[in-house]
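**User:** My hope is that you can spare some time for a protein that puzzles me. As I understand it, each token names a local backbone shape. I would be glad if you read both lines and explained how they fit together. The protein I mean follows directly.
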Amino acid sequence: MRLVVQKYGGTSVGTPERIGNVARRLMETQREGCQVVAVISAMAGTTDNLLKLAHQISPQPTARELDILLSTGERAASALTAMAVNAFGGQAISLTGAQAGILTDYNISPKQIHELLSDDYIVIVAGFQGQTPEGETTTLGRGGSDLTAIALAGALNADACQIFTDVDGVFTCDPRIVLDAKKLKELSYDELLEMAGGGAKVMQSRAVEFAKKFGVEFEVRSSFKKRSGTITREETPSMEDVVVRGISLDRRQAKLSIAGVRDEPGIAGRIFSNIAAAHIIVDMIVQNASIAGTTDISFTIHEDELENARKILMPVVGELGGHRLNTTSGVAKLSVVGIGMRSHSGVAARMFECLGRNGINIQLVSTSEIKIAVIVDEKYAERAAQLIHAEFGLGRVLPAASATRTLA
């Protein structure tokens, strides 16, 4: 008998009616001759509301109590889903992450799940949570239900792992930005990781990393439609035939540039150790060639962290002999991703020429083996994404009026 792990996101269980739809889908999957394990996220908006409530009670809530509080959203949604299955005449039971045997170092002891499956239960697991070896409840970060599903699929040696969400799959670009964006049939783990890092919000990056490490193939598909989605798997030689797989856009970025610091060993370490100590995540980093013993270092962070980073770096710049600290908010990162870049040349040239022809200035460039990312002014970000999407022929064929609106 096939074993299927299905994960349902917050919008998929956002109302009682949608919970009922999920319950019916679970029962339908079981009737097809499958053992079913479902991972359920909190109902849409619940986690944000709990966080807001916590900060109304305490400006700095203790980590342990915050984890216990936030884990209740998934527990409630999974219990409600099990109730719905049972109300429809099925047999389901909900488990917390701890009851499912999930440890937050990603060790899983699924003995109880196997026993329940053998008794014909649909097993519904609260996502986003687990426990420490000492038995303390902990959470797995935003999007952690994705990680729960992937980890369970690996531990259970599932035949299929399906990530149900409010979109049809992974697209060549956000369809809200590019009207003719096309749903991808498949992509590699590395491509989805790069797209997620570039701003695509379809999957949690840690979940994709875990899937790659343990070879868990999964499909992202809509919980509202009965159609196939996008399969993410280990890359195959044929995947390199597609030069550019997709484009992602990450808004609300900020750029910081430290001008004229000494070009000596340890200088960059001093700068970024101070940033790291404040738990500020750095994305792109560019260092200019040395001139007369000095260099400029530029990097990007999320715009919300700009003021904090500025306060941290101002005294450091003086200590390192820097001339000044320049900061710019209101920029965005545009990334072009595809494993075909490994074996095809000219992608960067086409990207830069396309932006240049249309008067869009590039402020920073960063590359990896399968990605080219640029920083542009945020007011040009959507148009830049539309232009690059068209440049590489990634879209579906649309009626003339729709295509005109896309590039307007």
Observations:
- The CA atoms of residues 54 and 66 lie 7 Å apart.
- The chain has a mean pLDDT of 92.
- The longest strand covers residues 246-262.
- The chain has twelve helices and 16 strands.
